[in-house]
Write a structure and sequence with these properties.
The structure holds two protein chains of two kinds. Helix content of chain A is 86%, strand content 0%. By secondary structure, chain A is mainly α. Chain A has one domain. By secondary structure, chain B is of the alpha/beta class. In chain B, β9 and β10 form a beta hairpin. Classes of the chains: A mainly alpha, B alpha/beta. At the A-B interface, α5 of A face α2, β6 and α3 of B.
């Protein structure tokens, strides 16, 4: 492969990626239009649909999310204690877990669980509807597919992801507390108090800001992949896989961008 | 042919319509008119472009050039608001029904009414039962689409297409995938609708028996061109070789054009 081919290939994939991001942004933009502008133009918000989505995305995710983040909190405590024990500062485990969960792992693990449960489901649901001509049917009935299908999902995600993240943070801290009580001479109440003392409001808020961004990303990717599904059942599987892979990548990317942003904002 | 005087008013008018997918042109300049109240059957083989033509007529595909006049608007250059207004006046029954799997049959039929009218739930309920009764599915409103057979799904899809009392009804392959008896039932339904409402009905199909049963006029599409158009009787008597081949169900000659075939094998080298 010569230099010209290489540069043209790099250029090609860069424009493809930019076009993809543009597609996501335009989908999110149209959903935002139907959420914020639509109601003032005689197109009422679809609250019942959004509530049923919120049930699916949020409430049904609670058991598995609780279990996973409890374990993550415990793991975080064990790993932190490994190093802190040598320094004789094992009581700092509470700080480590509290900050690690609220600033980073709470939002991230929540996002990953929601990608697995809902991002994939969005792509599969919309993809199947595309393949069986249901999206076309909506259009011929003068019902905008983005308005009808995508907007309720955005609404549900933007509300439920921060809620799930708060829950995940609490469960993570509880997991850390199990270690604290068993190995670091804490009582339950003293561990919780130590965690609360370690946390600033800023830690929690930055985590929640991230989780809202994750919610937007996951919904945009899931719905975009669903709507971009070609013909045939095989394509639905492909769309679902792509939705998961691309969502995980973009969530990490968004996470990085916002963490850098918060880092420099707090330095001032 | 006696009826032509009745259908003097033009409902849809196509002028030199061209449609492409990417670089590939599917329809190469289609011209014909559809009259108010008539049943027009668009015939054609697989890949002839007949489905693309139907998708263009309901605004799912944008033409590259040419005009489609419907209710005084040109669909090729129409604003999305105007397109919405037109779509409320047309109904489309898709090949597989395209019912929403997460809603009951009744909710499917009610959806366009809930979206576009301010009718009360009780009124919508009455309309839904009425429409389902018209297609022979009375009492099925609480079933899920997955609980229906293929023929019932199609009937339910017709009920949904009828919900807004459309002026024009489009059918994509109404008898595809149905056994002959059920398919005859769907044909019968189309005939009943035609008799009861004097609706303009446009049907895309390749089923000859069903086409001759329901059609006032027929259009034969082949490789993206209109080969023949005329009343069903004229069509049946046509001597046009391509029409005869289609109607007499003659298989495509193995090597239609020996030179083309050679070129295909040698990749035009």
């Amino acid at each position: 492969m010569n230099v010209v081919e290489l540069t043209s290939q790099i250029g090609g994939s860069v424009t493809d990626s930019l076009a993809y991001l543009g597609g996501l942004a335009s989908l999110a933009g149209r959903a935002a239009y139907f959420t914020f502008v639509g109601p003032f133009r005689g197109k009422p918000l679809r609250f019942p649909r959004a509530v049923s989505q919120a049930m699916q995305v949020g409430v049904r995710a609670l058991p598995i999310l609780s279990l996973i983040t409890f374990f993550i909190g415990l793991i975080l405590a064990l790993q932190a204690a490994y190093e802190l024990r040598r320094l004789g500062a094992i009581t700092l485990v509470a700080n480590g877990v509290a900050i690690g969960m609220t600033r980073e792992l709470g939002p991230l693990i929540t996002a990953v669980v929601v990608i697995g449960r809902s991002g994939s489901a969005f792509a599969a649901e919309i993809g199947t509807m595309k393949v069986s001509e249901e999206i076309d049917a909506l259009e011929t009935m003068a019902i905008h597919p983005v308005d009808f299908l995508v907007t309720p999902k955005f609404l549900a995600m933007i509300v439920m992801l921060p809620c799930l993240t708060i829950w995940a943070n609490s469960m993570g801290i509880l997991g850390g507390a199990l270690f604290g009580v068993a190995q670091a001479n804490f009582t339950w109440t003293r561990y919780i108090r130590a965690s609360l003392d370690a946390l600033y409001l800023r830690d929690i808020v930055t985590g929640l800001v991230k989780s809202v961004m994750f919610g937007i990303t996951i919904t945009a990717v899931g719905c975009y992949e669903g709507l971009a599904t070609g013909a045939g059942a095989e394509q639905v599987g492909r769309a679902t896989t792509r939705a998961v892979v691309v969502s995980i990548f973009l969530v990490i990317l968004v996470d990085l961008v916002f963490t850098i942003l918060f880092f420099f904002m707090s330095a001032q | 042919m006696v009826q032509t005087a009745e259908h003097a008013e033009t409902m849809i008018s196509l002028h030199n319509l061209r449609v492409s997918y990417g670089d590939r042109e599917i329809l190469h300049g289609i011209n014909f008119d559809v009259m108010r109240g008539e049943t027009l059957v668009i015939l054609g083989g697989s890949g002839s472009g007949k489905s693309t033509l139907l998708r263009t007529l309901v605004g799912l595909e944008k033409p590259n050039s040419g005009e489609i006049w419907l209710r005084g608007k040109n669909l090729a250059a129409i604003s999305s608001q105007d397109m919405e207004e037109i779509r409320k006046k047309i109904g489309m029954s898709f090949q597989g029904g395209a019912l929403f799997g997460s809603m009951t049959v009744g909710e499917n039929v009610a959806l366009p009414l809930r979206e576009h009218t301010k009718l009360e739930d009780s009124t919508i309920g009455i309309i839904v039962r009425l429409k389902l009764d018209q297609v022979g599915l009375a009492g099925f409103e609480n079933y899920m689409p997955s609980q229906l057979s293929g023929g019932m799904k199609k009937r339910a899809a017709v009920a949904r297409a009828l919900a807004m009392d459309p002026e024009i009804l489009f059918f994509d392959e109404p008898s595809a995938g149905l056994d002959p008896i059920i398919a005859a039932g769907v044909d019968q339904l189309i005939l009943e609708l035609k008799k009861a409402f004097h609706m303009t009905i446009i049907v895309v199909t390749h089923e000859l028996a069903s086409a001759f049963l329901i059609a006032d006029r027929m259009v034969l599409i082949d490789k993206g061109n209109v080969v023949a158009i005329g009343p069903a009787v004229e069509m049946r008597a046509s001597t046009h070789p391509r029409v005869r081949q289609f109607l007499d169900r003659v298989a495509e000659p193995e090597v239609a054009q020996e030179l083309d075939y050679l070129q295909m094998l040698t990749e035009n080298r």
